[in-house]
Amino acid sequence: MDKQNSGSSINSIGDIAFIGAGKMATAIACGLLREGFPQASLRAYEVSDTALAHFHEATGGHGSKKQAEALSNARIVILSVKPQHIHEALAACAPLLKDKLLISIVAGVKLKTLTELSGVERVIRVMPNTPALVGAGISAYTPSPYVSSEDLRHCELIFEAVGAALLVPEHLMDAVTGLSGSGPAYVFDFIQGLADGGVAAGLPRDKAMHLATQTVLGAARLVQQSGTHPTVLRDQVISPGGTTAKGVAVLEKGSFRGLVAEAVLAAAQRSAELGQN
To answer: Is residue 39 domain-shared with residue 153, that is, in the same domain?
Structure first.
């Protein structure tokens, strides 16, 4: 959604508190601050002294080991703990969550489970990815039936602060996990492969990595900004009998695109399996 066409702004959200102050929570908080969100409206509940110190150093926001101190005045609470800690975290915080919007970025935990554990009906499940750490993430989100249009817009504003946000039905969240959630790992492997090939062809490692990284960044931007299908863009690079044709033939021989698609499907299936536990 276009931020400029929205009736809501980052300053209309109200106080935000995090349950868990790890890397992703800190990245979201930093993104909000970059967009003009007031520092005084950020809070975090965290049991780790190290994580609390890092959160405060990075954001200036107030962190606490006391649930009530961190959560009581929040309008929105973002649950950002590891999946294995969700029962413990919500058992400790549930009494303080009444009438709040709960946004969960905990991987694989469904809306039904979040509602049962928290007692909260206004719940949004979000799947961000690690490029959010540099403000270039994509976060898919899905709401419970009790979430208002204002709640949805506030969720969008929060995650647009660290990239882009996309509304999807919950039954597609496993597919999202396999593609954009796990996708950065596939791209990192591809970048490494490009750089390794450059080194094998004679380039120094640092120059090969720089060339590989910028090539992937630029190619992605070209797809995004041109609106042209990737296959069309690929064919525009290929000259008959040329260097790119030779390289693409090797990729096709190894079923490169098919392997990537299989990786997405395997990760999506694993996400579905974990969601049953």
So the answer is: yes
Same domain for 138 and 9: yes
Question: pTM of this prediction?
Answer: 0.90
List the end-to-end C-alpha distance of the chain, in Å, as a whole number.
Answer: 34
Give the angle subtended at the CA of 147 by the CAs of 142 and 152, to the nearest 5°. 65
Sign of CA dihedral 180, 185, 189, 195: positive
Residue found by looking up tokens 């506030």 in the block: 154
Q: Which two tokens stand for residue 7?
A: 């009736």
**Tokens representing 18?**
């995090």
Report pLDDT digits (tens) over 27-62.
Answer: 999 999 999 999 999 999 999 999 999 999 999 989
List pLDDT tens digits, range 220-235.
999 999 999 999 999 9
Q: 154 vs 78, 89, 180, CA distance in Å? A: 12, 23, 22
Q: Please say whether the beta carbons of 96 and 43 come within 8 A.
A: no
Task: Give me the domain span that covers residue 157.
Answer: 3-170
Closest CA to 16 of 164, 154, 167: 154
Mean pLDDT of the 139-152 span = 97
H/E stretch holding 66 reads none
